[in-house]
Amino acid sequence: MSAKKTWWPYGILSVIILGVILLVALVYISLHQVNLNDNAYMQGYSDVEKNIDTLLPLTQEFLQDYDIRAFIDSKRLDFLSPYAKRPNPKKRLVLNLNSTHHIAIDFIPKSAKFKVKDYEIYASRYYDREYKNHYDSLGKKGFKLPKEGRYKLILKIILTSNNKELMPIFLQQDIVLKAQ
Questions:
Q1: Is 59 exposed, middle or buried (0-12, 13-18, 19+ CB in 10 A)?
Q2: How far apart are alpha carbons 43 and 34 in whole angstroms?
Q3: Residue 160: which residues within 8 A CB-CB, separation 6 or more?
């Protein structure tokens, strides 16, 4: 009686070898196709850690050189720098969900160190996993947000100094929208 040749061990071995080749190829491609938007990849860990607060000094200088008067539906907004200590969290600005809100912002310079070129206002809803756009641009006229809840308003300010555009600075304020 002659022995039959079986090919299934070769099939299993070829699948394992193909898997190892694909794994090596993926590692090679990921090392040579860097994400150009992530500058932390190209720097050492200690360099990233040293430069984490590059926006804060410019933000502090701006807040010393400017008074910001901001109102939403004639209620005062106090924009804060990103790491500033929040005032009493129980005293949040509460707005009506079903109405259109208007924001007015004035930048009052104390010195002529910076000039405000432009600004934008964004809103981000806290604790919403279904929120498709993380940041909605509110524009400068009026806005109406879709859902009830707590939002973070982000004020992006574009500065110039000696006709040179500087890094934008960001200030923030929390608001609550409730159906009333």
A1: buried
A2: 12
A3: 114, 115, 117, 166
Q: b/e per residue, 141-157, with b = 16+ CB within 10 A? A: eebebeeebbbebbbeb
pLDDT tops 80 at residue 46: no
Q: Are 93 and 144 in contact (CB under 8 A)?
A: no
Q: Exposure of 23 by Cβ count < 10 A (0-12 exposed, 13-18 middle, 19+ buried)?
A: exposed
Phi, psi torsion values for 88, nearest 5 degrees: -45, 115
- Give the E-state strand segments of 2-65 in sequence order: none
List the structure tokens of 131: 């929120």
From the CA atom positions of the chain, what is the Rg in Å?
27
CB 162 within 8 A of CB 50: no
Separation CA 66–CA 80 (nearest Å): 13
pLDDT in tens, 66-103: 888 988 888 888 888 877 777 666 677 888 888 888 88
pTM equals 0.65
Please state the φ and ψ torsions of residue 114, each to the nearest 5 degrees: -120, 160
